[in-house]
Structure formats: structure tokens, C-alpha cells
Amino acid sequence: MTHPFPDTPALQTALIGFGNAGRWFHAPVIAGVPGIALSICSSRPDDVRADWPSVPVLPNPEAVFADPAIELVVIASTNETHHGLAKAALLAGKHVLVDKPCTVTLAETEDLLAVAKAQGRVLTLYQSRRFDADFLSLKQVLEAGTLGRVVHFESHFDRYRPQVLDRWRDKNLPGSGLWLDLGSHLVDQCLQLFGVPDDLLLDLACQRDMAEVHDAFHAVLRYDSARPGLRAVLHAGTVVPAGSPRFAVHGTLGSFVKWGTDSQEDALKAGQRPSLQALAGWGHDAQPGEVITFEDGQRISRPAPLATGNYMLFYAQLRDHLLALRAGQTAGAQVGSPPVLAHEILQSMSLLSRGELSARKGRFVETADLR
Predict the structure, then answer these.
(1) I want to staple 95 with a disulfide (CB 3.0 to 4.6 A). Which of 122, 137, 301, 327 is the partner?
(2) Do domains 11-128+312-340 and 143-258+290-306+361-370 have the same CATH topology?
(3) Cα(86)–Cα(307) distance, rounded to whole angstroms?
(4) In degrees to the nearest 10, what's the CA dihedral of 242, 243, 244, 245?
(5) Using 50, 70 and 90 to split pLDDT, how confident is the model at 167?
(6) CA-wise closest residue to 307 among 142, 127, 125
(7) Mean confidence (pLDDT) of the chain
(8) What is the rounded CA–CA span in Å between residue 335 and residue 315?
(9) 38 and 88 in contact (C-beta within 8 Å)?
(10) pTM, full prediction
């Protein structure tokens, strides 16, 4: 993906937060995209300098908001801080990218979207798993019509992490638990594929010893009005030693089954630093999906299309949009769109919120009004 504004000053970007999300999923991805100049705001400046000795370190969010050169603020701090930090950044005239979930309540997300609109600034959400290799492969299969009319979709994100760690994600705090964490990804991918369901049922469970907050969820989404018979199952657990298929999709003409998860997370956690200018081997799927069809009564198995994952494309698209906005203020440039649109942020947060209501009520909750 070429840089459409090679001669313009780089997009000055400040990353707030250098925990797992900032350290693994944002800093190395941002740094791999030309045309973005990275600075990092963290309460652990020594950790930042150990990893990124040449990157400017800012002492606190207030310094980020007060710097007129910074155009984009990336919020990768704990979930309950997303609303306050993002709102302050928007009011300071910055564009904002928030790591998922956008906020911990629907009301907070609605507030941010209203502030962004009033300020004339971009608010977008880091739905990086739209750029997973397995998801992109599945999209190709569905777009080709190979499976016929889809009647059953399962999306699992199961892991074996039986120990409860001493971290905020495993404590009973606002925004913790697996539904807002991994559920944010699975809900967004499901919306991308099938749109808003008619209704949703969510079950939450604490399955590990000493668990303070739910560490497993099972959601069923029904699509009868637009896609008769379609059921989408979104599932995640932390006590799954054997693992499970990442995707299992069944239609009137065939099935798609995919084991294994996208390779980018493990590569980033291992310290690899990708570059949009040198992609050899990045995002390769070592365990391709399988497409099963029947021809003349015989079961036929074929490898699914082999897509390549690339989280850097998210930041490249956002860079292009913001630099075009910058140029368009004086040159009338076409600005394209950010990677995740305002209505998509609202839909995903609304579904997550309806899911929480379903779990409390123990029944299906209607969602069709979110279309």
C-alpha cells in the first residue's frame, strides 16, 4: 500500500498507554507505517525507552493534549479510562483512535460520538481483527458464494489460560471480563459479515478457580428476518486445553472450517516489528482453512483461499484519511473514510450492551432496532 502523501509532513501521533495493548498491538504497528511520527505517553517511561529509545516520551496525557503538533491520539489505556481520555483529546482538537472496547457503557460511547461530531474530529475504533488472515479468507469464501446460503456461523476465541493473573483485566472492575475484551472483536466481525441480528442471547461464566469476573461467554445471534434460519454463535473461553476451530461456517452448499488463530498477535508478542515497506512473511497463515463441498454425492475437501493478515493496513488507511483531511482544508482533497465508521462503533457497542442486558435477564434481547 503506497503512501499517497509522500511529500507532506508526517501525521504526528501520540500513543497513550504502554501496557499490553500499547506495547504489543499499537506501538510496533504504528512504527511500521511510513508517514506516521510516533510519540508515547506512559507512566513507565523507562519501559518505553528500553523498547523505543528514539521515540519521544510524554509525561502525562495533559502534555499530549496541550501539544499543538499532535494530530492523532491513540488511547490504549485501561478500559475505564477510555471515555475520559478520548473526550479530553477531542475537546483539545485531536482526532482519536480508541482501542476496543470504545468505552465501558453505551452512554459513554454515544457521548464521545456526539463530541467528535461537534468538534469536527474523527473518532474511530481499533478493530484490527478485520485484518486477520483467517477472517479475510472467510470473507473471500462467503463472497464467492461457495457455501451457498449460510445457516450456521461459529466464531470461537478459545485459549488455555487457567491461572487468574494479578492484572486489571482479571479483576472485578468496570470494563473487565472477556465479553468487552474478545467479544468486541467477535461482535464486530459478525456485524461485518451479516449485519445486525434480530436478537441476541448471552451467557457469561466464571470458570477458573478464584475468578473475580467472567472468563467465558457464549452468545447466540438470530437473523431470521434477513437471513432465514441463520444462527451466529460467538464463544470465548480461557479453560479450553484442546482448543477449538476458530471458525466453523455451514451453508446449503458447503462448509468452511478453520483451526488456529492469526499469526500476527504471537509475532508482535515475540518482539517482531513489521514494516509496511518490507512485508515478506508477515501475516502468513500457516494453517489454512478448509472448504468442504459435495459433488455428485462425494465429499470434496479443498484448501480455502490463502489470505494474508496485516494490521498495518488499519493505520495506513487512517493515516490516508487524516492526511487527506488536513490537505482538504486548503486544497479540497478527497478524504476517503476512516477504517471504522461512527455508525459501526455505535452498532458494536450497542450489541455489547444488549448482550450484557441479556446476561442479566437470562433471555433473548431484541437488537433489530440498531440497524
Answers:
(1) 122
(2) no
(3) 34
(4) -130
(5) confident
(6) 142
(7) 95
(8) 15
(9) no
(10) 0.95
Instruction: Starting at the earlier edge strand, list the strands of the sheet with 36-41.
Output: 57-58, 36-41, 11-16, 72-75, 95-99, 123-126
| Distance of alpha carbon 111 from alpha carbon 293, whole angstroms | 47
Residue 334 is predicted with a pLDDT of 61
Return the amino acid letter for 189: Q
How many other CB atoms are found less than 10 A from the CB of residue 230?
Answer: 19
- Domain range annotation of the chain: 11-128+312-340, 143-258+290-306+361-370
Check: CB of residue 43 under 8 Å from CB of residue 103: no
The pLDDT of 113-134, averaged and rounded, is 98
Residues 17-34 as b/e (b if ≥16 CB within 10 A, e otherwise) read bbbebbbbbbbbbbbbbb
CB 255 within 8 A of CB 286: no
pLDDT at 1: 59
Closest to 305 measured CA to CA, from 146, 131, 130 = 146
CATH of range 11-128+312-340; options 3.30.700.30, 2.30.30.30, 3.40.50.720, 1.10.287.110: 3.40.50.720
Q: What is the pLDDT, as a whole number, of residue 191? A: 98
| Contact present, 88 and 70 (Cβ < 8 Å) | no
CA distances (Å), 209 to each of 45, 98, 161, 237, in order? 35, 32, 11, 14
Confidence (pLDDT) at 2: 67
Bigger pLDDT: 59 or 331?
Answer: 59
Asked if 354 contacts 219 with a C-beta cutoff of 8 angstroms, the reply is no
What percent of the chain clears pLDDT 90, i.e. is strictly above it? 89
CATH 3.30.360.10 assigned to 143-258+290-306+361-370: yes
C-alpha cell at 150: 449460510
CB 35 within 8 A of CB 5: yes
By mean pLDDT, which of 128-142, 149-163, 169-183 is the weakest?
169-183
Confidence of residue 227 (pLDDT cuts 50, 70, 90): very high
Residue 281 has pLDDT above 90, yes or no: no
Mean pLDDT computed over 147-170: 94
